[in-house]
Amino acid sequence: MAHELHTEIEIGAPPAVVWAVLTDLPAYPDWNPFITSSQGALAVGERLVNRLEPPGGRPITFKPTITEIEDGRALSWLGRLLLPGLFDGRHRFELVPSGEGTRLLNMERFAGALVPFMRKSLDTRTHAGFEAMNTALKVRAESLTESRPSHPTRGGTGS
């Protein structure tokens, strides 16, 4: 059985800024309420060590393998509980340019024998965690964009 979660948010910051926040793993404890720590190298085939703290749930540590990384655009990993096919999660972050900002897609496809037993928790706690992370990422990326020096006004009289 499979089950998907899909969340998205509009962020008033360019994809490069959103990507910089998303891939700055050592800074996760400073802003991320869901993945409260993440360690490892961001390269296909590498394993991360992620600490999840789902709202209303118990913290867990898992070690997903990165399956895709496309600079400035996408990051995906596969996490498994014990054995393949028991409870697998394919997570994907995708950044889509949107006007002056970015649309962040934060989604995961769960598959395996335990999915029916975990579905309620996925739809409540995990979904809420995705939403909390999206909002925190938005706040952080937009605050970094606001703190950048502004560009000179075009069409001025000059000096």
Describe the protein in words.
The longest helix has 32 residues, at 115-146. A hairpin with a 2-residue loop joins strand 7 (88-98) and strand 8 (101-111). It contains three helices and eight strands; from the N terminus they run βααβββββββα. With 159 residues, it is an alpha+beta fold. Helix 1 packs across helix 3 (115-146). The strands form two sheets. Strands 1-8-7-6-5 form a five-stranded antiparallel β-sheet, covered by helices on one side. The chain has a three-stranded antiparallel β-sheet with strand order 2-3-4. It has helices at residues 15-22, 28-31, 115-146; strands spanning 2-11, 35-39, 49-52, 60-62, 65-70, 74-80, 88-98, 101-111.
Radius of gyration, whole Å: 18 Å
Spatial ordering of strands, largest sheet: 1-8-7-6-5
Hey, roughly how much beta strand do the residues contain? Answer: 35-45%
The pLDDT mean sits at: 92
Report the helical percentage. Answer: 25-40%
The largest β sheet comes out as: 5 strands, antiparallel
Terminal CA distance: 68 Å
Q: Give the tally of β-strands.
A: 8
What gross morphology would you assign? globular
* Order of helix and strand elements from N to C terminus: EHHEEEEEEEH
Question: Helix tally?
Answer: 3
Task: For the structure shown, list the relevant keywords.
globular; five-stranded antiparallel sheet; about 30% helix; alpha+beta; 3 helices; disordered C terminus; about 160 residues; single chain; about 35% strand
